[in-house]
Design the sequence.
């Protein structure tokens, strides 16, 4: 059972690597974004062309309006600039978030006479949440005087995660109700907050675990809350 879980978790991670390379989440791709102009929230369409970024301001109700015959005049952000200071602009968008997560560490509070535990056992989970991605478009000058475009990406997501894992089963975690030691198969469920910096997703999860086998009635952590550290790869 443990080997099957290992292959399952590795398969999820490896299959997500190709999706990550094509993922639009961390790239400032073409599309509709929200922004602010003089303190007012507005909509803009982003178009990447050659080494420049074209920003088209969209009027209210643009989704219901017909496509204009004449393309509006864009604001152009070139890949490099002769200007030393160009005001930074911020754009953001909301979307559905689908991730593959693992929890390298789980903190479990003390139970009865058993002390607090920090576990690091094999696990994997799928995550579904609501995400906000923010892109800051700015220009910075390097030490030799070249001014080039820089895009900084940050993401924030809240949602639910569910998956499988293993946990050590022994007399100590069952109040001496069993006399053997083995790796038990568990189902985990959690509420998670995820932060994204470019390609990497990491965050915190508050969840519970349920043991699948008949010794679940003895396991001191059955259905008890834990706090986990999550890392993951974005699938969409």
Sequence:
């Amino acid at each position: 059972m443990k080997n099957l879980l290992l292959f399952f978790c590795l398969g999820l991670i490896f299959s997500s690597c190709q999706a990550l390379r094509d993922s639009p989440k961390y790239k400032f791709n073409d599309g509709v974004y929200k922004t602010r102009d003089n303190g007012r929230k507005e909509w803009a369409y982003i178009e990447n062309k050659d080494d420049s970024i074209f920003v088209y301001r969209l009027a209210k109700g643009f989704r219901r309006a017909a496509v204009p015959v004449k393309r509006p005049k864009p604001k152009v952000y070139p890949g490099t600039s002769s200007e030393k200071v160009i005001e930074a602009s911020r754009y953001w968008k909301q979307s559905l978030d689908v991730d593959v997560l693992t929890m390298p560490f789980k903190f479990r509070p003390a139970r009865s006479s058993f002390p607090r535990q920090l576990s690091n056992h094999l696990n994997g989970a799928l995550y579904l949440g609501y995400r906000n991605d923010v892109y800051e478009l700015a220009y910075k000058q390097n030490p030799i005087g070249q001014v080039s475009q820089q895009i900084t990406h940050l993401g924030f997501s809240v949602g639910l995660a569910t998956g499988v894992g293993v946990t050590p089963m022994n007399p100590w975690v069952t109040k001496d109700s069993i006399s053997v030691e083995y790796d038990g198969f568990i189902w985990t469920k959690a509420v998670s907050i995820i932060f994204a910096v470019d390609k990497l997703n990491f965050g915190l999860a508050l969840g519970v675990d349920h043991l699948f086998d008949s010794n679940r009635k003895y396991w001191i952590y059955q259905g008890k809350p834990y706090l986990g550290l999550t890392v993951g790869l974005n699938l969409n």
